[in-house]
């Protein structure tokens, strides 16, 4: 089962560490950096129903959250009120022809959600629909607030009640309170944004307006699309492609965009110079066919691969990616290095929510059930294996092990991101430091622990090259340089 | 299809009215005065789980609401927070061993709900669980507020947001706001009660207290039970019997009862002399094996039957009740009149939520599918048929028609309540006046319209005899004498 | 918990037996003689769809089997073949608008099934649809064969394969084999009947014929109905009432009825003089509003009550029935004895398939959850309690206990059937002898064991009076006089 | 919408054909050659449960059939009989911990199925479990018989009844009949095989034996695996990898393998020289990580791509594959041609059975919802697009259109199989000839119809190179050279 051939003293302890990783209670899911949420909004000025289009939009954003899905719609010309349906499950599990056809209206918002286990209850599904002083709002939110605890406490002291544990409810309260003084809902959104700190991309529907807003640092993406007389807001451009809409432009960090039949209005009063866009959107979260803030995700991954080839070259016979996100970087590595690109893994795409995970002790591990190696492709070869990240190390160890068991002579692991060292407070579910393999081990140690013949991370100083040299990114999980000072206590948990 | 044998001119128009009733689009469900809600609470001072007992308690209260069910529990010795599960459906559809076993805790509240169609959405299911300045509250509510619209507006103007359309959310807000000033949660409940007008029986769980409260008029029932070291609050005593608990006493109108291991505390500062207990609990809503405010429901229905025999005697061969609630009154009529009691109807108890209703034009009507006549029992006989009420008249007409078709020579209808003439604002779903057959027609006309040979209602002046002569009842739906002035606009709808 | 007041030596052991019964692991379901199956067929000569009418027919027969339900239909004018849908569950759980609307055709059969636990799998649900030499047959069967094991073996030895464990498959095979020689399907049915021994009421649909058949002894009921140009076959007349059809006549024991647009044909060649109609249909199985072989079920139960009053008189204040089937007998007892009739029990009708049964040791027993006592109705009274049967005795002991706990001074139990002493081989699920309380105990002992003050069974010699003096009944479960010699080995199990 | 820039007369009609293809009612599903079935068997000589392992095995074979799934198990040391659970749906939809844990036993077979629409009913799901003269058999079958109609008729004339429309039932009958004379079940299987013509890979479990059989031509794959003391039979080796088993060998065409604790026995009496292995397993059906009859599927696709590069070279900037099966061939084309390989498409893997397909007229087409183009990767480039086949042409036209819309300057389509011209009678669901675009159009016409700049198919004469030069293949769908004479009437439909 172990790959080590030399029985040297030092190696033994390393092998032991490797064995330990291989035998840890199976936690394939726990070893993935989870996406957070996806938001989508649509407003058809011609009055046609938008729920079906939002369904396809959410379907294209499914990779951003597989736990719950929801759609809220209103009829700008009909009776007041918002119809909403949401539940735990994938978009195509939550919605069927029957419930979708009841969601008739020409304006609407949708949401897909991932959440930490504790808050994985139906009550926390989005969109949130609230009745307040000026009518009804529907709201979908992607991100995580840093001052949510303080704001909840403050609101509580003026009599607020909370029925969920999501940050979105805090934002909704603030919008409602600001609306008591502000003449319009978009100004209320803007004013509420002055009070919240953190990462948020918001899509809000009021009875006659569709509003998009992005936090001043621009942590999370949000863009505008258009199809005939219908306007869209979406976390990613891939959803615009799916619904046949053209990309209009990104919402700017700090901007509040108000979409109405009278025109598209922009409030940039909260825009600031310093941005901190989440680099992990490019590395792993976003779909490769999306373009975020002007940079294509696929291209950025190709570049990462090229950089790896420059900084961590190796003599090898084959470059392979760990599907799916490792593939473009592998292609980049191949182009830059001249080592042939190939496929080494077949991924089983039928794993669904109800999949029965192998129990500890069963001969089928989660990794093996989901990934199989193309033996003939790797046998006898020196393989460069590109993956997007190493979290706890268990998955990496198992995949390296699969390759060795399939006959690979050498396995050189290249990671298309720097090493995770710090927690994220802005909506990415990175485990606490003590679980991050990189926080307690040197690269050399990690290399041995995962059983690789060599290991190279993307150099953090070259990270910005992935997005064309722009440096307005948040790389805090690698560097600890938080754009906003993190809270004293760990408030992570209820991201939207 | 018609039963009339004489083809006289006058009769023809009557027959036409009868035929019209018989042929109206099937609305069996719409022709029932619906129960509203049932509440149940439990607190085991020995620390055992209460969710299973609440399940059986709700099961016994199922007749009070078949649309949604929910249970919320907390652990007074464990981590903070309340676990809640609720969904659309019957108690035994919503709960299974899996979700019930996750609701562990020694204090809890439960709810079954009926609602008007418009608000029949999952968001409105109870119990309501809220986080507020002092922690978490679970709340179940039976009743309807008269000033909910004003209160919502008022709360909105101080920044409140509403995520449901149920009155319970308004009450929760008021409790939360009062808690900013009141030293205890029970005082907050008491103070909130000062602000709300209408009918409400409340069961509230705070982290360490189970609180029951009843509005000062005592519209809705609520009682206290005990089993070893476990205390209960319940809409009806039948649920106490089911869980093997003893009846302790009724909560008094206006009283706030606080149940803690340190003792049961009572705050009667809102108690008042004038009560207005809903007489329809005795006539139809409550289960006959319940005792409400000291009076047995079964016995009160027997008395109603006896009064009918005194005030509307008739020569006949058989007295029958329309199942289920007509049976005790029929027995009373039989005892008083000496006319033999018998069964005439077999009710199909397998009708569930998913039952496919006969379409207009199909030969099977909803009434016929649910009720069949024992032909041999009624053929050739003069039958006294006792029912609890006439709403639109369609069901009565159809049942009379079934009896005649089965060979009954005469059908004398006796109704164990006075005629419905006025809307209810306190939580009973009586249709609007224009749909009430009694509001536009004389007794004689109604008699002809439903095809009966004679018709007699319970005399409203003798209503109080049903409950032993006590006159502290609300009979507004018969008399229009509302204990609280009704609102100018029709605010009915979202009862709890 | 015990009701005994005298602490005499003898009594102690009796009380112990009573306590034991009360404390046995809860087996409310196991203490009921289960219905078997219900069959229904329809053929609309005008070509309209019959599936919706079959749905309502099965719904009226639901009491005969709550485990699985199914409908098979064909189109006599359309493409060949039979569409069938069946599953585990109640009629209204199995069918919805979607799957029912796909079952279009003018001829069809339906089935509801109860089964013993071991065979409770979807494969055994009916109707059975088979393709054979002459096309397609749909078949629904109520009963149990005595020679099924031999026939299966015999068929196996000529290469038959079996995909279910139900007798109906054996019958289907025989019909198919006979069809190789017989000129018509109805003759094949007749010839197959020559080979099978036991109880069976069959409804068979061939491409253009609806066929009903009843075994020569007539164990199970089957009748013919008519509505305009639609003909029906049904286990009970109550289903005819529900679908608005008139009763035409019963199928005679041994008769094969063939319904076609050309006429209704009858083959009585297998009819015989000796009949053995199951008396338990009248005592318990059939719905009281059904008429079986010319005798009303309700009336027969009234008579049983009257006989009990004659043979087992007692001084008492109140006669009550154990719902539902005990009520008519209680009424009969009251009429004959002059003791007032009343209600003592409220039954919770919301118990569904998914109901979570109380666990051993929980304070809520299955009996208490399903039945509650009207305390005020029985307190201080001497009560005659009528039930239809005693099986193991546990339920009787618990109900007597409930009455005593509610304050009844005396409880005199009267059973509207003789004591169960022998197994049934014809389709009724009577437990084996060692579980029948009557097979090992005298009436006096049973009386003490169930905690009653007196106990009286219906005299077996007067059983025939229940059905107007006719003696062509099967009373083998009481007398051991089997109309057909029972098999040497216990072949019970797979009744249809 | 059209891509054509020159408005020449000829082009117009071509463009019209292209438009027609693009606008045809969406039939993405209909434009895929469907897999048929996958079979899997396991026998643990140490007596441990095999159902969980069969679950993972079927999961790895899911690509061979997504319509129904089932597992049947027996206990060789316990009570007789086979437990089976099967239903419509994916493996992870059909099975959950509850139903899987009930399937305990040390021997078992599993099945995944695709079927033509008409037979997509639960009754046709496999495995088939039959009781016959010698006990119980479980059976799973992949393939299609040519003489099923004749055999059914013949069996009918000796009294057989059929409850499904699958060929497997015919095979089961033959085995049962042969068993009357044959001393062992494996000989019965062998003898039954003498009677059937067509394609079949069978896995059969008898009480103590696991039997695998493959038709004499070897149309469908079947292999043997081993893990400690557990033996496996599987359609593909990828399932062996998933469950951690080693590949032992392929079952030979015509061979009957009997696996028992006493040894693995082989009966090769039906083996013949002429084989006709389905080449489409390599082209599209099988998972690339499988090895079939000694040839790796991935490698064979690489070779196909290389041949295409040799026979249909073109000047271009980028080679892309249509996911998933087009990718290896694209890699092969790239290697051979030197044109860089890249990704052009992102496939949405979340499409499940319940996915709501876009309606005609909606702006989201099925193709667009499932595939999106990486614009930046293809814009301005001359693209070689490799797909595995063209069926009706609609999907190809739409994908070419997507590439052009994304800015591709030229799109050269290369197909890694010859053109479909003939129906398959051996279990592959190829549409009838009139729907095959290649049967009525020249390559040049097809090229224009799908909007490509050039089009090249794999040369049928070089097909055998894909599998290392072996010529024992069935290529009848391309050549019409059927290894067995096809039936006069079209009997396709119920493949297993």
Automatic annotation (TrEMBL), chains A, B, C, D:
It comes from Lachnospira multipara. In the C-terminal section; belongs to the purine/pyrimidine phosphoribosyltransferase family. Pfam families: GATase_7 (PF13537). It catalyses: 5-phospho-beta-D-ribosylamine + L-glutamate + diphosphate = 5-phospho-alpha-D-ribose 1-diphosphate + L-glutamine + H2O. Its cofactor is Mg(2+); [4Fe-4S] cluster. Catalyzes the formation of phosphoribosylamine from phosphoribosylpyrophosphate (PRPP) and glutamine. The active site is at residue 37. It comes from the Bacteria. One of its GO terms (biological process) is 'de novo' IMP biosynthetic process. Pathway: Purine metabolism; IMP biosynthesis via de novo pathway; N(1)-(5-phospho-D-ribosyl)glycinamide from 5-phospho-alpha-D-ribose 1-diphosphate: step 1/2. One of its GO terms (molecular function) is 4 iron, 4 sulfur cluster binding. HAMAP family: PurF. Binds 1 Mg(2+) ion per subunit. Binds 1 [4Fe-4S] cluster per subunit. Mg(2+) binds at residues 325, 387-388. [4Fe-4S] cluster binds at residues 278, 424, 474, 477. Residues 37-262 form the Glutamine amidotransferase type-2 domain. Its EC number is 2.4.2.14. InterPro entries: GATase_2_dom, Ntn_hydrolases_N, PRTase-like, PRTase_dom, PurF, PurF_N. Keywords: 4Fe-4S, Glutamine amidotransferase, Glycosyltransferase, Iron, Iron-sulfur, Magnesium, Metal-binding, Purine biosynthesis, Transferase. This is Amidophosphoribosyltransferase.
